[in-house]
Amino acid sequence: MTQDEEPRSSEVGVDRTAAGGPARLGAGDRRLPWLALLLALLLTGLGYLNRFLQDDAYISFRYAAHLVEHGELNWNPGEQPPIEGYTNFLWTLLMAGAIALGHDPGAASQAVGLLLGCSTLLLTYLVGRRVLGSPRQALLAMFLLGTHFSFSAYMTGGLETMLQTFLLLASALQVLRLADDGPLAWQRPALLSLLLGLAFLTRMDSALPAAVLYLSAVMALKSRLPGSEARNRALSWLTLPGATLAAAWLAWKLQYYGGVLPNTWYVKGASATLTRFGAGAVYLATYLQAYALLPLLALLAWHGKEAWRSSGLALCLLLVVPWWAYVISVGGDFMEFRFLIPVTPALMLLIAWVWGRLQEVAVRRALLLCCLGASLLHGTTFGGSSGIESVPVLQGHLTASHEQWLQVGKALGETFGEAGDVLIATMPAGAIPYVSKLRTVDMLGLSDHWVARFGDTLGKRPGHTRVATLEYLLRRGVNLLVAHPQVHAPSTDEQPRRPANLWGEISGQALPEHLRAIEVPLADGQVVEVLYLTAHPGIDAVIAARGLRQLPLDGG
Fold first, then answer.
1. Handedness of CA 114, 115, 116, 119 (dihedral sign)
2. Which residues, 6 or more positions from 129, have their beta carbon under 8 angstroms from its beta carbon?
3. 275: helix, coil or strand?
4. How does 197-207 read in b/e, with b if 16+ C-beta sit within 10 Å?
5. Torsion over CA of 488, 494, 495 and 497, rounded to 10 degrees?
6. Do the beta carbons of residue 409 and residue 432 sit within 8 Å?
7. Can you say whether the dihedral through the CA atoms of 98, 99, 101, 103 is positive or negative?
8. Cα(263)–Cα(526) distance, integer angstroms
9. DSSP reduced 3-state for 104
10. What is the DSSP letter of 484?
11. How many angstroms from the chain centroid is the CA of residue 328?
12. pLDDT tens-digit profile of 425-460?
């Protein structure tokens, strides 16, 4: 054995138990848990350096604010029927709690996300000890996960990604613990049941990995408890808490929203099946290429039979493969690999296991460098591909000088907030509606019942397949059309213009002759142009009082 090879278990004091069992530390390795804690803190620091927020997070923040301020989980308070335009119920409740305590939800979401990210890293170490039978390989899996750029970035972002990941991995640990020797207390299956129920409340698509984990737990209990009475009692604890939680939530949704599926489902299901599968396949292929995972998957396939013989590794495979198939079936996502994060800990455990099977030191080093180098290269160079927006682009929507969606929302709220019951319409329906606090029509339909079902076909991009028609906006009485905000220096001429992006993809429709654009000043001296659609006395008064510049339009 060369000096670079990993020592045998007998040499480092590790007791490798049967597959799926925990690895017990010898005297020489009792410091490894402390090393794991230190490493988790350092990797969480890396997540802090990669922190960001994205526009879609402000959709949840808006619902959370309305719950606190108006007692409604609704897009526009008082509108009937209520609209379920979010897909992360539990996360939205957490953000409502932060708002109720006086915290900014953006900062609160990042703090909670970093805490969950650190916890997920530690859970990866604990699961790795059981699955891999080696604390050192468990540390490697945790290190690979923490240096995986997409995982690191999505410790923040403002959405529920890390909460879902944490709950699923915590559930996997409980499944593995059910196979432990000794007396089986009722708390273990009950805790697993609650974790699965909470994962379902976080995102409904957690039902797929939750089903895998639940069935794995059932099999573990059947093999461990041959007696029917004890087994049935354990299965009851495994089933009832989570099922009761999920059933109560679904019953509330049915009563409150009139259905159990979120409004977003109708938007994302608007594209043809083959189109979705094609986009999903490209999404996954881009991910595999970005992180140089194809050679690793080839090695995993080569050792596939051996992996299936281990219950822990088989569980990891059953989490990763069906989830990837699900992501393909829904068409992937436009956000950089966010949908793939929930099973990334299981993927890193599989990679660490493959690393441990390799005999050549040079190959081990090459595998490790491949993972680290690909993540570093991706994090520093990826600017987006095939409709996938990178993390910097997602952050840039809110703060980049030519977009400034946060500032646009602030300017609209400060300018027209006192004008009365003003209704705006916009495509980026996150930061602008949240910060402005104005009633809003979501032009892409995620929070609009009619657009989600009847809007014009827009394109193939997930979540962007429908768009409001001009006729609908006029029928709703929309006063100000923001669409895709146009931020620029103030105009210096009176020439008629046709700023097509003001009305975005509805620009092909004939515009009424009376329409005009208004320049709304931003804090930095720039302006944002909005279309004045439906007359409103309060808006007219604001235009006159503030001397807002009005621009004629060149046709429609």
1. positive
2. 22, 23, 135, 138
3. helix
4. bbbbbbbbbbe
5. 40
6. yes
7. positive
8. 36
9. coil
10. E
11. 16
12. 999 999 999 999 999 999 999 999 999 999 888 777
Query: Between vectors from CA 66 to CA 62 and to CA 72, what angle results, nearest 5°?
Result: 130
Question: Can you tell me the distance from the alpha carbon of 264 to that of 464, in angstroms, rounded to the nearest whole number?
Answer: 10
pLDDT at 15 exceeding the cut of 70: no
3-state SS class at 19: coil
Task: Answer whether 321's CB lies under 8 Å from 297's CB.
Answer: no
Distance CA 500, CA 75 (A): 27
Reply yes or no: is the peptide bond before residue 81 cis, omega within 30 of 0.
yes
| Measured torsion, CA atoms of residues 58, 60, 63, 67, in degrees rounded to the nearest 10 | -120
The pTM of this model reads 0.91
Q: Which amino acid is present at 542?
A: V
CA–CA gap between residue 453 and residue 87 (Å, rounded): 17
Six-digit token string for 267: 């938007």
Write the CB contacts of 471 (distance below 8 Å, at least 6 apart in sequence).
509
Mean pLDDT of the chain: 89
Segment holding 288, helix H or strand E: helix 273-290
* Residue 555 burial class via C-beta count within 10 angstroms: exposed 0-12, middle 13-18, buried 19 and up: exposed
pLDDT of residue 420: 87
Task: Enter the tokens of residue 200.
Answer: 């379902």
Q: How far is CA 407 from CA 101, 327, 350, 357, 469, in A?
A: 25, 34, 44, 53, 26
Structure tokens at 478: 């929309």
Give the residue among 107, 99, 101, 98 at the shortest CA–CA distance from 51.
107
Which tokens sit at 108?
């609160």
Give tens-digit pLDDT for 192-225.
Answer: 999 999 999 999 999 999 999 999 999 999 888 7
How far apart are the two ends of the chain, measured CA to CA in Å?
77
* Domain positions in the chain: 50-381, 400-552
